[in-house]
Design a protein that fits this description.
The complex is a heterodimer. Chain A has eight helices and one strand, in the order βαααααααα. In chain A, helix 1 crosses helix 7. By secondary structure, chain A is mainly alpha-helical. Chain A starts with a strand and ends with a helix. The mean pLDDT of chain A is 93. Chain A has a single domain, classed as Alpha-helical ferredoxin (Fumarate Reductase Iron-sulfur Protein, Chain B, domain 2, Orthogonal Bundle), CATH 1.10.1060. Chain A is globular, with a radius of gyration of 15 Å. By secondary structure, chain B is an alpha/beta fold. Chain B folds into five domains: 132 residues, 3-Layer(aba) Sandwich (Rossmann fold), CATH 3.40.50; 175 residues, 3-Layer(bba) Sandwich (FAD/NAD(P)-binding domain), CATH 3.50.50.60; 83 residues, no CATH class; 163 residues, FAD/NAD(P)-binding domain; 57 residues, Alpha-Beta Plaits. A five-stranded parallel sheet of chain B has the order 8-7-6-16-27. The longest helix of chain B is centred in the first third of the chain and has 20 residues. Chain B is globular. Classes of the chains: A mainly alpha, B alpha/beta.
Chain lengths: 134, 668
């Protein structure tokens, strides 16, 4: 999608507000320094960089983020949260994005399609389902 | 009396010179000359031990001339001359041989050539020095008065500082009131002060100060003279109203039937033909705009014979009819007054490029305006009382887009530099919109946010975090009309896609330039300026307030666009520079001036035609050129044009220069 039309003030967008409520973070405080992306250990596997997540949110484009892999690739390691110069808890915002989907009973993983299921430690599977299923 | 005991001091300048030039060899070679009594090298001649070396050597070897081979004379000529003077040698018997910029730096790759060139430069300088005369500086009297051109915040500050220090100060402002662009602003960043509230006390101080003589609605007609002794002709433009009688009551404004765009409100509001700039004007006086007044236009046509005067028709004189003090006389009261001052502070400010210059960004639409115009709409004393409305239909805008860098950082379509104040005032305006209209969406299209001042970055973060302003990083390419709205097409370079938004108003942060007419003024003052109308300082870092013309200083946005904080600081700085000159009983002047050999001079007058300073006259009786030493700047234009070498600049005589050139070119 190379073109985006802003229809209403992103500050009034319902889903942006919901994300801000779930995460407790003012996503408009981000001033796009990019430190989150440059330090993210998972960034190379993401389709939208963490700083871009904030830019999409600031433009009220939640649709793009809900169809993106980034929130699910996020390992919740909190490196970004620790490093953010304006003190934003990015991991919480990623969690809010996942939460937005999970609350609609959306499963990001299907237990029956996990490869090598027998060989994985049970704790890994439990964590996986906690994070990626409702 | 040619010198016979010259000392030559060669500086290493750390490795700047010694890294390329073989300074020891240079000293040995030069030391072989018969007229050189002493030749040595030192690591830093400009250091205190270096200067001490020169002083001690002058005494020890009884030197009658000194050549210091180091950097450009613009840097350390004075240092070395002062050192010589301390040792009792006339300072004009010291010359600088520039072996750093001329030999070491340009020939870094060829030390042998650099060394030979350094020797040649020193030899040439010695030849020039040998014919130098001992000179004493000239003393010129000082008029203890100052002139400030421009009544904006920088000029006001300069005038008040000068006047408070006891200097009688003349202020000239071309608008009918002082206050400048600052008085147009809504609020100031980052403190959100009301400019009217914080500037009016200063304006009133200027208006009522016993040491300040205020000429508003006046322009500089001509400047002559020199540092400490300037003669300034000031044109007081015609107001058609007797300001001694006018009380500023404003009765006349209520009856005037004519309506034209207000200059003060930058076209955002109308004014009458007879007008007072604003309620807080200093001085609070009415004047008639002769281009729109019915009566004055009629009288002009009668004068030009275009129409015949009619006997029984009464021409509009409504304003004069209601004027109780009978101040309105409709007579052209333009006059030229003369003032004599010792120093001049130029604080002429800035202007912004008009929105019309950017048709692709919608500059042709009425609701696409410059940020300075928008200041008026946001000002509580402005045409919309601080609640912005669309100029086209008066509707309250539901969404506004701000565009940064319009013409700035854009050498192809505007100016190459960053206009410096736009980021901050745009953020401020966005905040003020949110104050007045909390439900209006604000989109701020920027390339970079440059918030380099005390409290500025915090101000930006406040706008982002607390005020709900939307910042989008990318330059807008076009603005066009879609129905009742304006479509802004930009880009978000952070997500890498085009962004489109429909808004009710667009505010363009257009590039700043030196104010209109500043180039003509600069020519009258003989001070340099650049193609954008900024006055040029002597040194950007170390002499930002000085101009090449002694006694003329620049302050505020006239030098380059700057915010109020910096303008006020420069205003005070320029006042301090002026005081430095005015506090002396007499000024010393370089004695390197043109002198005429009356035996040779034929009085042809070619030198007189060339003199940019008006320093030369032709004596009608003896029929020879006469140089006014107080006016002469020693530039040498006269000498270069003299067919008989009758007029020459002291210590730059033709023989000296030719000998030096011969040695440099190795034509012995």
């Amino acid at each position: 999608m190379m073109k985006y039309t802003i229809k209403e003030d992103p500050h009034n967008d319902e889903r942006v507000r919901e994300i801000m409520e779930i995460s407790g973070e003012n996503i408009f405080a981000c001033y796009q320094c990019g430190r989150c992306s440059s330090g993210c250990p998972m960034a190379e596997f993401m389709d939208v960089l963490p700083n871009q997540v904030f830019m999409f949110l600031q433009e009220g484009d939640v649709d793009t983020l809900l169809s993106a892999r980034t929130p699910w690739v996020c390992a919740a390691c909190f490196t970004c949260t620790v490093r953010c110069p304006v003190g934003l808890d990015l991991a919480a915002v990623m969690e809010a994005l996942r939460e937005l989907q999970l609350r609609k009973n959306y499963d990001y993983v299907d237990p029956y399609r996990v490869e090598n299921r027998e060989e994985l430690p049970p704790i890994a599977l439990v964590s996986n389902f906690r994070k990626f299923t409702p | 009396m040619a010198m016979k005991r010259i000392g030559v001091f060669i500086c290493h300048c750390g490795r700047n010179i010694a890294g390329t030039v073989d300074v020891k060899r240079v000293a040995e070679e030069i030391g072989k000359r018969e007229d050189v009594a002493f030749s040595t090298t030192y690591v830093f001649m400009c250091s205190q031990p270096g200067q001490k070396l020169i002083e001690d050597s002058i005494k020890e070897y009884n030197l009658d001339g000194v050549v210091v081979a180091n950097c450009s004379p613009t840097l350390h000529e004075r240092t070395m001359r002062n050192a010589a003077a301390r040792a009792g040698l006339n300072p004009y018997r010291v010359e600088i041989a520039n072996i750093r910029e001329w030999a070491a730096w340009p020939h870094e790759d060829n030390p042998e050539a650099a060394t030979r060139k350094a020797i040649r430069i020193i030899n040439a300088t010695i030849e020039k020095l040998k014919a130098n005369a001992s000179l004493e500086p000239l003393e010129v009297p000082v008029i203890r008065r100052a002139l400030v051109i421009g009544g904006g915040v920088a000029g006001i500050q300069a005038a008040l500082d000068l006047a408070d220090a006891g200097i009688e100060t003349v202020m000239v402002e071309r608008e009918p009131s002082i206050g400048g662009n600052m008085f147009r602003l809504s609020e100031t960043f980052p403190t959100l002060d009301c400019p009217q509230c914080i500037l009016t006390p200063k304006m009133n101080d200027v208006g009522g100060h016993p040491n300040i003589k205020l000429y508003t609605y006046s322009e500089i007609e001509d400047v002559s003279g020199f540092m400490g002794n300037f003669k300034v002709k000031i044109k007081k433009k015609a107001t058609f109203v007797d300001w001694d009688k006018c009380t500023g009551c404003g009765e006349c404004l209520r009856v005037c039937p004519v309506s034209v765009k207000s200059e003060y409100d930058l076209g955002m509001k109308d004014r009458t033909s007879i007008y007072i700039v604003n309620e807080q004007a200093v001085p609070l006086k009415a004047l008639i705009d002769q281009d729109s007044c019915i009566r004055l236009k009629f009288e002009k046509k009668v004068q030009e014979g275009k129409i015949k005067p009619k006997k029984n028709v009464k021409i509009c004189s409504k304003c004069a009819d209601v004027c109780e003090p009978e101040a309105i006389h409709f007579k052209n009261n333009e006059e030229i007054v003369e003032e004599e001052v010792g120093t001049i502070v130029v604080a002429t400010g800035y202007e912004v490029m008009p929105a019309e210059a950017f048709p692709e960004l919608g500059g042709k639409y009425p609701d696409v305006i410059t940020a300075l115009q928008f200041e008026r709409l946001l000002s509580p004393s402005g045409p919309t009382a601080g609640v912005p409305r669309r100029p086209s239909d008066g509707k309250i805008p539901k969404s506004i887009a701000f565009v940064h860098c319009v013409g700035s950082r854009d050498p192809q379509n505007g100016v190459p530099y960053c206009s410096r104040i736009c980021c901050m005032y745009t953020i401020k305006q966005a905040m003020l919109v949110k104050h007045a209209l909390p439900d209006t969406a604000v989109y701020d299209f920027y390339i970079d946010i440059r918030s380099n001042g005390k409290g500025y970055e915090e101000f930006y973060h406040r706008a982002k975090e607390e005020y709900g302003v939307n910042f989008i990083r990318g330059k807008v390419s076009k603005v066009y009309k879609v129905g009742d709205k304006y479509r802004v097409q930009g880009v978000d370079t952070l997500t890498g896609r085009i962004v489109e938004v429909d808004v009710d108003m667009v505010i363009l942060a257009t590039a700043a330039k030196g104010s209109e007419g500043v180039k003509e003024l600069a020519k009258k003052l003989r001070i340099p300026y650049d193609e954008w109308g900024w006055l040029k300082e002597v040194h950007l870092k170390l002499k930002p307030l000085d101009t090449p013309v002694g006694g003329v200083f620049i302050a505020g946005a006239a030098q380059f666009i700057k915010d109020i904080t910096d303008s006020v600081a420069q205003g005070s700085g320029a006042a301090a520079k002026s005081l430095g000159l005015l506090s002396k009983p007499q000024l010393e002047k370089e004695p390197l001036l043109a002198r005429v050999d009356t035996e040779i001079c034929a009085g042809c007058g070619r030198c007189k035609d060339q003199c940019a300073y008006g320093a030369i006259t032709i004596d009608p009786i003896r029929h020879v050129s006469v140089v006014n030493e107080a006016l002469c700047e020693g530039c040498g234009a006269c000498s270069a044009n003299c067919p008989t070498t009758a007029i020459q600049v002291v210590n730059f005589k033709k023989g000296q220069i030719i000998r030096a050139v011969d040695i440099l070119a190795e034509v012995f």
